[in-house]
Amino acid sequence: MDLQFLFSHAIAKGTKFFIKNISKGGATAAPGFFSLYLDHNILKKLASNLETTILVTGTNGKTTTTRLIGDFLENLGVEFVHNRHGSNLERGLISAFLENTNLSGQSLVKTALFEVDEAAIANVLPKLNPQVLVITNLFRDQLDRYGEVNNIRRIWEKCLKNLPEQTTLILNADDPSLASLGKNASCRVIYFGLSDKNVSLEKVPDTVDNINCPSCRSELKYTRYYISHQGEYSCPVCHFTRAKLDIWAEEIESGSSGSEFVLHYSDKIRVDIKTRLAGLFNVYNILASFGALSALDFNLDTFPLVVKNFKPAFGRAENLEFEGRKVIVTLAKNPTGFNEVIRTFFSRGQQIVLIAINDLIADGRDVSWLWDVDFESVRDFGTKFFISGLRASDMALRLKYAGIKNYQVNESLSEALEAALEALPQKDTLLIVPTYTAMLELKKVFAKKGAGGQFWED
Questions:
Q1: Distance, CA of 441 to CA of 250 (rounded, Å)
Q2: 3-state secondary structure of 64
Q3: Which long-range contacts (CB under 8 A, 24 or more apart) does 307-311 make?
């Protein structure tokens, strides 16, 4: 009998009960934090009788990709544990398990689906030994915490060397740094990407993270740029090239109200996809989720319907109504993400945009990334900006240097929201672009007005 495990599990269960029923909180991290302190191997023990584990990591797209997979599993009637609310450090995974364990700590379900923080994956991976590992992309994010992208890539490279043969690795082939990881993998690899010249950018973005060959460091030559350094490429020196796609999208029509495209799988399956998920980045998320499910040999006939009916998480390009007005909330936490928001949602004319920038730990304390967002591209759009958050002054300074003069600063998010709604023409849509903790604060503001619940109720 493992008394240490039983004690730590009991403490975690009690903490979760207290937070949810007495404090009326979400209990998405604290129970796991305390139990991990008491037993460093509690996650491995909780997962000991799982039959199927799916992990999703990467810079952007983790939450949407895991929720797409989760909706498909629910549609099939599969019972599973899932950190649905986005608490993606080890403590969050443990806390999610507690919803589905008996008093002795045994999991009551046989399947687990987790999104995992890109730096935390190194510690989590050997404890869970997943059947499927999805890596969505690798962009510069939270420099104060992660450092440059090569630091994360080195962590992943070390992890993947120890993957068991029964794991299937799902990789974004359009990202050279990820595609190269699959070259040396000892397990099965499924590559996904785009194949559509009509959604290619005309030139490499000025703020691209890295266009050097991961093998020899020479500059890669691109025939198509899709998002930042993601595209179709080859190295003229060592001849490293994009992997052959197993799953790809073409005939893509993507805008602020949703996307349509044709999904191909291994030259055998052709599926028409229609979704409310806006933006090219969500096309990638759909491909990644399809890859994970195909690796587990599910019958995917219902996949298009699941995608069509999919409702994004709060802040993931969700269309809402608030006080009778139309609102889109889309999270941006790094230069690539914000540039894609601009590409997808900004338009010429008297558009009203609310930007909320915080610098708490979950956001990243370093906000210098704002200077790598291409605000100059919307200088002449006629947009009216409302700026809020703890680093509102930094955001305002960035707009000033971009040559944008039409902005108003209010550090109070609720007051900035009220001002933006007052300025919004009756039939227009307010675009809100927050960082992570600002998004959670915004969710509370909406909940107080009766527009949705707290984030753990989503």
A1: 38
A2: helix
A3: 307/68, 307/273, 307/274, 307/275, 307/277, 308/273, 308/274, 308/275, 308/276, 309/71, 310/67, 310/68, 310/71, 310/275, 310/276, 310/277, 311/276
Architecture of domain 3-309 in this structure: 3-Layer(aba) Sandwich (3.40)
First to last CA, the chain: 38
Per-residue CA distances from 424 to 4, 135, 350 (Å):
57, 39, 9
Q: ∠ CA 291-292-293 to the nearest 5 degrees?
A: 95
Strand-pairing partners, residue 250, are 262
Q: For domain 316-457, which CATH number applies: 3.30.230.10, 3.90.190.20, 3.40.50.300, 3.40.190.10?
A: 3.90.190.20
The two structure tokens encoding residue 128 = 């869970």
Residue found under tokens 């440059």 = 148
- Other CB atoms closer than 10 Å to residue 395's CB: what's the count? 24
For the chain of 458 residues, list the mean pLDDT of each consecutive stretch of 10. 85 81 72 86 93 96 96 96 89 90 90 94 93 93 58 87 91 95 90 96 75 91 93 96 97 92 91 95 98 95 97 85 89 92 85 95 89 94 95 97 96 94 92 95 85 51
**Could you tell me the residue ranges of all domains in the chain?**
3-309, 316-457
Q: Enter the pTM of the model.
A: 0.92
